[in-house]
Design brief:
alpha/beta, single chain, 7-stranded parallel sheet, Rossmann fold, 2 domains, 8 helices
Amino acid sequence: MPENTTLQRVAIVTGAARGIGAATAVRLARDGFAVAVFDLDEAAGARTVETIEKEGGRALAVGCDVSDADQVEAGVARAAAELGAPAALVNNAGILRDNLIFKMTPQEFDAVIGVHLRGAFLMAKACQTYMVDARWGRIVNMSSAAALGNRGQSNYSSAKAGLQALTKTLAIELGPFGVTSNCVAPGFIATEMTEATAERMGITFEEFTDRYARSIPVRRGGRPEDIAQAVSFFAREEAGFVSGQVLYVAGGPKG
């Protein structure tokens, strides 16, 4: 291990095996962080680790169900032991269980709230101890434009709106200890998750993307790298006076 790695800050990114999470993990590694790649499937996370290591970075794949308190505690402890105390946390893990309210089951609602909102709470709770001790930390929660309401997503929209409130509360509670908390709210982003949505709708992903692009002022869908750039800003030393904010990255005004 190089001598200067003891000074290297460590970031944890959840749901980092693919899509926005993977792009964010790679970007933070390029920014100088060692990155713990959390995902339900540790083997899938290894692909992101390989990308980071090929570019000369340090990374670790950790299998973790973020809705499970014991797994979160164990996963964060492992990341701290093998990479170093977490200084930045990106709560990106998420699932979809879309359905109209009259069809949605309690299990579908609870599953989405459990991963998105409970998972972010558990991860923040586990990581803040290290950040408070260090008197420096960055928490970035991944919300969505769906926080404003979206047909067929009462579970997802509720979770994403809750994340915005959690973000502001963490900013108030942890600010005195040098820890900022901010929120990125993506609009339409081309990922495997949105591809699955198009498939459920019975249309091609190209048709799905074109439909959204026509309603976006910049006339294109977003890319995972667009979101990673925003997270990168919030994670920087220079962003220390920015906290409790929600940044919509959606190609046009939201909120």
